[in-house]
Amino acid sequence: MKLTGFELRRVAMPLVAPFRTSFGTQVERDILLLRALTDQAEGWGECVTLPDPVYSSEYVDGAVDVLRRHLIPALARAAVDGAVAVGSALEPYRGHRMAKAALEMAVLDAELRSIGRSWARELGAVHDRVPCGVSVGIQDSIDQLLAVVGGYVEAGYVRIKLKIEPGWDIEPVRAVRRQFGDDLPLQVDANAAYSLSDARHLAQLDQFGLWLIEQPLAEDDLLGHADLARIVRTPICLDESIVSAQSAAAAIRLGATAVINIKPGRVGGYLEARRIHDLARANGVPVWCGGMIESGLGRAANVALAALPGFTLPGDVSASDRFYRQDLTEPFVMVDGHLAVPDRPGLGVTPDPVLLARLTRWQELIEF
User: Fold this and answer.
1) Taking the model in full, what pTM does it have?
2) CATH top-level class of 121-340
3) Which of 109, 167, 226, 310 gives 281 a disulfide partner, CB atoms 3.0 to 4.6 angstroms apart?
4) What are phi and psi of 78, to 5 degrees?
C-alpha cells in the first residue's frame, strides 16, 4: 500500500445537550478528521483534541499545525506503507500523541480496508458486542442530575459515571445512590480536580460502594495517587496519567492505580492501546475504554478495542444519540445495554458525504 496524501477536515457537530466537566463545558464538538489517501483504499482517522488545552496540552489548532508542518511530511519522507511503521516514523517528534494517533488510525483503516480485514479482528477482539456505560456531566442541581441519570438507567445503560469536582461530589453521589440503590454500577471521574490534601474528603466516597474514582489528582502525580490509594478504599483508576505502556507499567508498579482507563488518542494510537491492554492483563489490572465524545468513526474503533479480553469493565462506549442527534456515520444503537462490534473491513463505517459536507468548516488536501 502506498500513501499518496492526507485530507484534513474540521467539522462542527452540535451536542444534544451541554456536557460539563471540571475543566469546562462543551456545547459543540470541534472534530478534526483525517482521510488517508492510498493507491488501494482510503482510511479515516479522528483526532480527539479539544479546542483548548484543558484536558491535555494538545488542542485542535495545535494538532492542525503539527500535522501540516511536521508529522505528515515525516510520513511522506519515510514512505510509510502500513500502520506499524507510523510510530517509528513519528518517533523523533515529542508528544502530540492525539495527532499521531489520528494519523495511525487513518493509515490502519486504509490498510485494513485494502485487505478486507476488520478493526476488531486486527486488534484481537473476542466479543461481538460490548456493554455500554455513560458519562454524566456536572449538572445545575441534584434534581436535574437525578432526572438525567434516571433517563440513562431507563434507556438501559449498564454503568453510570458521574463527573465530579470540589463542591460537587459527596452529595450528588449520595443522592444518586439513594435514588437508584446500591446495585447500580456507579463510578466517578474527577478529571484531576483534587489534590492530595483532599484525601480525607475523597475518602467519604468509600461509603457509596463505587466501582472506582477516576483521575482524582494531577496527571503527573503518580506518587500522590499511590499515597491516596493507601487512604481511600475506593479503587483508583488513572486516565490522564496513562500516556503509554511505559507510564502504565510505572503506575502499576507504584500502586498508583488499580484500574486503567485506556483512551487510544491519549496514548498515541490503537496499537499502543493494545500494548497497554496486554500489559495490564498480564498484571491482573482491569481496563476499560474511555471516550472523548467521538463521532461514529472514533466510536467504531473504540467499540472494537473494548471487545478485547482484558476490557472487563463497561467503558464510555455509549450509543450515538448520547451526544449527537445525527452521527457522521450510520448510528450506533444500543440493544439490551450493548453495542454491536463492527465486522466489516477497516472501521466498518464511513461518513455520510452529504452530512460531512454540511458540517465541514475547513478542509485542506496535502498530496505527496
Assistant:
1) 0.95
2) alpha beta
3) 310
4) -80, -5
